[in-house]
Structure formats: C-alpha cells, structure tokens
Please model this.
Amino acid sequence: MFSFPKYLDVRILIPETGFLLRGVNFLGTPLSIPKIHKSIKIVTDEEKTMTALKSLYDRDILLWVEDTVAKLKSGDFEHLDINNLIEEVESLGISQRNELSSRLLVLLEHLLKRLYVSLPDDYRGWERTIRNQRNSLEILLKQAPSLRTRWNDSFGDAWKTALKTVRKEYRQVTFPDQWQFPSDMQTMLDCDFWEDSES
Model:
C-alpha cells in the first residue's frame, strides 16, 4: 500500500510498460499500486513547471527572456526559472568584463603600432581603429560604471598580450617593455600619444 499527501497532483510512470497514471489524491486517501510503488516516479506541479521552463530556455532564449521579464514585473517569483536566471545574470557580468579586456587589447595593439611602427600608409587605418575602440569603451563604461574599478587590472593583462602580439607581428621593431604614457582611464580614452612623440 502506497499513500500520497493530500492535494498532491501526481503522475505515475509504471516502468517497462509505458503506462502513465495521473490523479489527485485528496485527504490522504491511499492509492494502491501493488509491488511497484518503490520504482514509481512522482512529478509534482513545481517540477512540471521547471521542466517546461527549461525546455523554453533551450528552445527559444528570446521567448524565455520575455517570459522571465513578464513574471518579474508581475511578481510571479514562484514560477521563475531560477537556475537559468542566475546563470544568465552571471554570464552578463562576465561578458562585460571580457568586453572591457578585449577592447583594451585592441586599443593597445593599435596604439603600439601607431607609436612605434613606421608605416605612414597604415597610420589612418590604425587611428580609425583607435577612435572606434575608444568610443566603444566609453559606451561600455557608461552602461556599466562598476567596470571602472577593474580598469587597472584589465589594462595590465591587456598590455602583456598586446605587447606579445605586436612583437610577433613586427619582429624588426623595438617596443618598450612597459607602457610609456599615463594609463589612467581618461588619458587612455582621450590622448593621441603619437602627436606628442612626433612634435
């Protein structure tokens, strides 16, 4: 004899048969399933909801976002897909930190080329890339001001990679081991360092 709690909506899958039993158990009324009760699978309403949400997340991420936003706005926290929501929020922060590092890397690579590689025909293209990366960095930092606290660490990592990259690309050019100019955020976003070095 196998008993269910009252008011529990359940589905019972009988192994090796494919049969699915479903019912609502009221007031603790026992449901008799001889010999197989140890192997039955009970699926509650909450589990069914989470399964459906997970399926939506895997099937259509945009629809999942719209559904999640609607639930948050209406205060329907009970039916939120919490696990995937946490994962998405964490990945958003990681994505922004990665973008900061990536754009600093490209900026430094092109600043090094513009400063130390004597190829005048390439100057305009390098300067265009520098402007584009600076503009994108300004937008990113406005959208996520807390990234400002990561500037120094991100700069240090980006510098090492940028220097390694340009040294491989221009083996005949001598690049400095350390950045020769101020590396604070405002200076890096505003100053055309090559103008000072060419004057």
Residues 16-21, 24-28, 33-40 have pLDDT under 50 and may be disordered. Residues 46-80 form one domain. The chain is about 60% helix and 5% strand. Strands lie at 8-13, 20-25.
